[in-house]
Structures are given as C-alpha cells and as structure tokens.
Amino acid sequence: MQCHLGIDDTDSQAGGCTTYIASLIIEKLGKLGAQFTDYPNLIRLNPNIPYKTRGNAAIALRFKVPAPEKAFAAAKWILRNSLLPTDPLNQKPEPGLVLFIGDRIPSMLRIFSQEALQTVLSISRARDLIKQLHLRSFSTNGGRGLIGAVAAIGNPLNEDHTFELICYRHPKNWGFLRKIGKASVFEMDSVFRSSTFNNSDPKSSRILIAPRGPDPVLLGIRGETPSSLMNAIRMLDLDEQVQGYVIYRSNQGTSEHLQTLKGLQPHEAGSVRGTVMDHPRIERGGHVFFELSTKLGSLKCAAYEPSDSLRQKVLLLEKGDRVQVGGGIRPASSTDALVLNLEFLLVEECIPVYRTFNPLCLACGGSMTSMGYRQGLRCRKCRARVPPIPKLRVTQPRNIAPGFYLPPPRSQRHLTKPIKRFGKERRRPYRRLLEAWYGNVSSL
Ligand SMILES: [Zn+2]
C-alpha cells in the first residue's frame, strides 16, 4: 500500500522551513527502507490567506515502506525536535503532519485540496476529514498546519507541474550572508533559459533563486525537468557548505490557483472576465485602480506599485476594453469595497479610440472654432467663416495590444505561471525518479 505523508510547518517565511523539515524526513525514511514513488510534492496553497506571508506551502511525500507506523513516528519526532532558525518576526509555528495510506486519493481529499488553493479553509474542516477517513495525524499549537498537510496529500499534481531543486544550508551558516557567485547565476540563467524560470529579475538584476533572511534554504532553482535542474546547479559558484538538496515536483509556476471565480469572497484567489468601466487612475502610493464589470458584479481591480510593468500596462486600458484578470481578493475596508489585487492581466480586445477635431481653415490653415450649435465655424486667425461641417475623426493609436501581461518576476507569486512557460504545460505527471533526486552535495 502506498503511504502519503502531508507536512506543513506553517512557518512565516517563504516555505523554507517546511521543505527543510521535509528534507530531514526524506533522509530518515530512506534509512527506514522507504521506496519513494514520486518526487516530494511541494504544494503551494492560496497565497492570499491572511495569516500567511506569500509563501503558503506544504509538502506531500509518497512512498511504500514496510512499517508505516514507524515511518509516521519518525516523521513526528523530526517535526518536534528539529532545530530551526529563529526569526523574530516569525509567529509561533503550528506544524501539522497527516498520513493517508491507500493507492487512490479519495475525492474528498482532492476537493479539499482544490479549495485550499483558492479559498480560506478552517482547521475544523481538516479535522473532520482526518476523522472521517481515519487518517493518522499530529499537530501542535492549534494545528493550523493540518490544513496544509491534508491539502498537500490531496493534490497529486496530475496535470501541469514544475520542479524545484532546493539546497539547504549547514545550520552553522543560518542567518549569515549567502555566498553565491552572482555572475554564475546570470550565466546559468542564460544557458538554461528555456528549461528554468525566475532565476533573476532582469530590470533590477536581483537574484531570485536565493531567499533572504534566516531561512535554512540556500537556494532553489525552478524548472521544467529534474535533469535540467541538476545540470543548472552545477554551473553555480557556491562558497559555502551545503547540507543537502532535494528535487521537488510542484504546482509552482502553473497558476493552478487562478481558476474562474464563482463569487467575490475576501481572501480568495481566481480569475474573472469583464469589461473595463472607466479609465484607470493612479491613487495615493502610486497604485492604479479601475472598475471592471463582470458577471459576478462590479469589481474594483488594483495594480499595486511593486507590480511595475503590469501597472504601466493597466494605465493604458480604456473604457470598453475586454479583459480577463486574475489575483487575490482583498477584503473591503471601512472606506473601500472589495479589491482584486492583479496577478495577471489578459487583454482580449482593445476597443478603438477616436479623437475628433474641427477641420483647419481653408484660407490660412489656422484652427477653426465653433460659433455655437449649427452656427458653423470661424477661423481664430483670419476670422473667415464656413457653414456647419462635420468634425473630422481619427483613430488614436493604442499602446496596448491583446495579450498576456504579468508583473516582473520579483513581484510574481510562487504559483504564477511565467510567460515563458506558456505552451510547456504538462498533461500528465512525470514521476520517474532521477537516481540522485536527493542527497548531500557530494552527489551533485
Ligand atoms: Zn483662416
């Protein structure tokens, strides 16, 4: 029988601690004779959950093992006793661990997982499922981590998915500057341009493979296949001891969370089609807002200042344009209605925009002005008069074309599908394990 172990450490950082705990559990399970049947699944959940930062992540390990009870006990021990970097801003971790044994993932788990991508779920719903399906579970500090642990089990990544190779730091280096040769990252990025994504941010020339802060993650390279990631990492200049690495299979870079919205609920993620109702305007802080008419009702949309290039595109929209928008819904405040925080803009149709003006004076070429309703025109310069004639109309060039627009890589969500992944979507799971899909750095 197949074991599915869900892990969520609910750390406030970008998910680094959860994957670090997972890497320790993987090593232990390997020693207990586990046969992994898939890469560990790194499942990103709804990024708009209020008590999470942008990293909302959980892990599912899928394997066969002679003694599942022993494996669960070992995982629990690691979750309870592992030393983690301390972050003064970190809220109390609320880890959760859940074990499901079975060859088929029940539809209840799949539905729960789908909802965890787009909506806000309660701990009690996770507990109900655990009870109903007789799952083994462990949690502390309120058990918020049970939500992610159950949701990770329920997403077998059967459709589009990507991979991430994550390297972990030796604990003695936690909190210290990461020693990664910047030039080698840009070189790797250019060599593996078509098989990796979001290594760096072109405009700010910031490196995106390394988190900042006390996270145990040294770096993570995201891409299309496990072997391209192994080749990519060998190009990097790393001047610090790496404790180990793991290749994950993930819904990162798939926009799996942006399915069509069924309603407009605070903190939910999704997408909706509509017609632009007014000219987008810049408000305080440099944020850009516009009103969209959708079948769910009128919706205020926002492109915040960090969305940079996306914000510039939004400013070019005109009343009447047909678009699709995706993102997270910010709850209404005392002064504001619900706002959809834009993660992508798909322009479907740009309406033509016209400029009308009076013809020029035939006598002197000066500009003509109307003398009143049906009174004809008079030249401002030579005062010549002409009878009423229709205004001239010219089509204004539109500086935006139908197409797909995203914020720059540095402002994208982990889940956002980068433009270069369009056309590369996988239709079935790729589970063939590389021989060295996890290990210490000597096997890299
Ligand atoms: Zn004139």
Describe the protein in words.
By secondary structure, the protein is an alpha+beta fold. It folds into 3 domains: 3-255 and 423-443, Alpha-Beta Plaits (2-Layer Sandwich), CATH 3.30.70.2200; 269-352 and 398-412, OB fold (Dihydrolipoamide Acetyltransferase, E2P), CATH 2.40.50.1010; 353-396. 19% of the residues lie in helices and 29% in strands. The chain has 8 helices and 25 strands. The protein has helices at residues 16-31, 68-81, 107-118, 123-132, 145-153, 182-191, 226-233, 309-314; strands spanning 3-8, 35-36, 41-44, 57-64, 96-101, 136-139, 162-169, 196-197, 200-201, 206-207, 217-223, 242-250, 269-276, 281-282, 288-294, 297-303, 322-330, 339-349, 353-357, 368-370, 377-379, 385-386, 392-396, 403-405, 438-439. Strands 1, 2, 3, 4, 5, 6, 7, 8, 11, 12 and 25 form an 11-stranded mixed beta sheet that branches. A 5-stranded mixed barrel has the order 13-15-16-18-17. A 3-stranded antiparallel beta sheet has the order 20-21-22, with no helix packed on it. Helix 1 packs across helix 2 (68-81) and helix 4 packs across helix 5 (145-153). The longest helix is centred in the first third of the chain and has 16 residues, at 16-31. The radius of gyration is 27 Å and the shape is elongated. The mean pLDDT is 92. Zinc ion (ZN) binds at residues 361, 363-364, 366, 379, 381-382, 384. Residues 361, 363-364, 366, 379, 381-382, 384 line the site of zinc ion.
